[in-house]
């Protein structure tokens, strides 16, 4: 009887299905371990390295700005006369503590043609006191180490004209250039060095500009790899090692990202794998029930039903009403199909909306923005965007705590959603306290009017914010840009322009809106790069 059972179609089919099931489980496990999980991890590493590269680009821009300022001063005829001793009023006219504080300089050093100190001016990092000297002695003794390093640099490369990072307890950004006539004729008469500290204030400016947490630290010796990525719990950190002068230390420039998105994707994938395995088991059981009857007509009927179920289940009432095994199988399939549709809808909702506020997230906003930009470019209709930032939200969190911060975000988000719905535009949460809106068929002027409605609605909440320097309640700053203004033709360019306008709104005192113009962008840049 055992031999007879082993030869039966039921046994052979069960053995075949069991083998297929085991092979599928092994394949899924292998695919997950060696393909899916490494791919997700690789993507996560790529994201944090990309963010770190953005911070490094910001550092390079800062170095180029400081070098440009040093060059402007060093090819100035007044500086040329001063280094030759022909302009005694040069220091009184051009140097002050206020200038050093506004330009965020720590030291300016002038050297003569022999490489000796001609004039020094700077802010003592320990006391904040402003000093001017002709030698690195007495009150200017704190400059002596830097002066020796600069003189070594001059001896190594008299041509200068470079920007370097100097090692130290507080890393320094140093730019230098030979002092020549304004037409750059004749030999150099000396050298000018400008020093800017990369301190907490510099880190704050960099974080505000990039929107990313930034760290700096000095590392002894050489590092083999340029970039190191480490994972600690829910955080992934990346560090890039930059060469400093002298070369016995390196500067570690770093950032970190929360791994919540990656871990959620991982958990979702595991959940899908589990459901896939359960679904496979269910199918095997259903097929065995069909084989118990060994009838071809119900099997063909079931095949037709499964083919129709993926399109429309309404026409299968006769099959669903059957009282036999085929009817049970058909109803189970329908229930599973509906449940799977519900799961798919939930997954789509999770991937495109912010769980705290319920607003669309950055992923959905970027996708919609690309579509709307293409439509606007093809039709010629105007398109405007807004970047909205809650004023001094970090102070709010520090004072009230993060739970109250979440409540504040929810209230502000609901208010902005109501305004957006009433005025017919799309709004999303694209950062911690940052929101973005797109307004198809709206010019920047129209967007400004709607931004006022948005700001007024939030003001009417009167949500308390005792630590805000702007008002006693929560307020917002808004940056506005329009497609094809100042050559802005891409989604990223459009958002960058809005970000510059938002920066201008913050610089203007916050609780206001600014529209991007090329002149506004130039003014923003020049405020950090023009010599005093």
From TrEMBL:
GO MF term list: diguanylate cyclase activity
Cofactor(s) this protein cannot do without: Mg(2+)
Pfam families (UniProt xref): CHASE4, GGDEF
Single GO biological process annotation from the record: negative regulation of bacterial-type flagellum-dependent cell motility
PROSITE patterns attached to this UniProt entry: GGDEF
A Gene Ontology term for the protein's cellular component: plasma membrane
Family matches, as InterPro entries: CHASE4, Diguanylate_Cyclase, GGDEF_dom, Nucleotide_cyclase, Rev_trsase/Diguanyl_cyclase
EC id: 2.7.7.65
Catalysis performed (reactions): 2 GTP = 3',3'-c-di-GMP + 2 diphosphate
Keywords on record: Membrane, Transmembrane, Transmembrane helix
Parts of the chain that traverse the membrane: 271-291
Stated name of the protein: diguanylate cyclase
């Amino acid at each position: 009887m055992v031999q007879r059972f082993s030869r039966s179609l039921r046994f052979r089919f069960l053995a075949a299905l069991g083998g297929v099931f085991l092979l599928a489980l092994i394949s899924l496990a292998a695919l997950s371990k060696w393909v899916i999980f490494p791919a997700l991890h690789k993507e996560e590493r790529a994201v944090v390295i990309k963010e770190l590269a953005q911070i490094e680009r910001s550092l390079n821009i800062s170095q180029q700005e400081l070098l440009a300022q040093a060059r402007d001063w060093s090819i100035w005829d007044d500086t040329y006369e001063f280094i030759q001793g022909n302009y005694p009023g040069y220091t009184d006219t051009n140097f002050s503590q206020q200038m050093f504080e506004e330009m965020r300089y720590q030291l300016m050093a002038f050297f003569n043609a022999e490489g000796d100190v001609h004039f020094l001016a700077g802010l003592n990092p320990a006391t904040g006191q402003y000093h001017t000297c002709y030698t690195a002695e007495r009150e200017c003794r704190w400059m002596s180490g830097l002066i020796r390093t600069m003189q070594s640099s001059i001896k190594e490369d008299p041509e200068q004209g470079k920007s370097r990072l100097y090692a130290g307890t507080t890393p320094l950004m140093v730019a230098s250039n030979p002092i020549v006539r304004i037409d750059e004729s004749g030999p150099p008469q000396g050298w000018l060095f400008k020093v800017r500290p990369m301190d907490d204030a510099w880190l704050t400016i960099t974080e505000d500009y990039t929107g990313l947490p930034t760290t700096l630290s000095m590392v002894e010796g050489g590092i083999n790899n340029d970039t190191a990525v480490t994972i600690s719990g829910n955080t992934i950190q990346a560090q890039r090692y930059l060469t400093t002068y002298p070369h016995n230390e390196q500067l570690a420039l770093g950032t970190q990202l929360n791994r919540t998105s990656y871990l959620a994707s991982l958990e979702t994938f595991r959940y899908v794998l589990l459901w896939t395995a359960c679904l496979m088991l269910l199918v095997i059981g259903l097929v065995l029930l069909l084989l118990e009857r060994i009838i071809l007509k119900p099997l063909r009927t079931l095949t037709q039903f499964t083919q129709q179920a993926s399109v429309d289940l309404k026409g299968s009432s006769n099959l669903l009403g059957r009282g036999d095994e085929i009817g049970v199988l058909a109803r189970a399939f329908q229930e599973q199909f509906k449940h799977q549709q519900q799961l798919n809808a939930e997954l789509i909702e999770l991937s495109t909306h912010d769980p705290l506020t319920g607003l669309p997230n950055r992923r959905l906003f970027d996708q919609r923005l690309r579509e709307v930009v293409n439509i606007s470019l093809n039709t010629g209709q105007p398109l405007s965007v807004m970047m909205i930032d809650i004023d001094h939200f970090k102070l709010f969190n520090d004072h009230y705590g993060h739970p109250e911060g979440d409540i504040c975000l929810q209230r502000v988000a609901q208010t902005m959603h109501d305004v957006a719905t009433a005025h017919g535009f799309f709004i999303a949460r694209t950062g911690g306290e940052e929101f973005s809106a797109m307004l198809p068929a709206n010019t920047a002027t129209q967007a400004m009017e709607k931004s006022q409605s948005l700001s007024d609605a939030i003001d009417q909440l009167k949500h308390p914010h005792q630590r805000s320097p702007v008002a006693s309640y929560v307020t917002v700053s808004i940056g506005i840009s329009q497609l094809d203004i100042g050559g802005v033709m891409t989604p990223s360019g459009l958002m960058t322009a809005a970000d510059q306008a938002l920066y201008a709104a913050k610089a203007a005192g916050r609780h206001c809106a600014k529209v991007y113009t090329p002149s506004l962008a130039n003014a923003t840049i020049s405020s950090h790069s023009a010599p005093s």
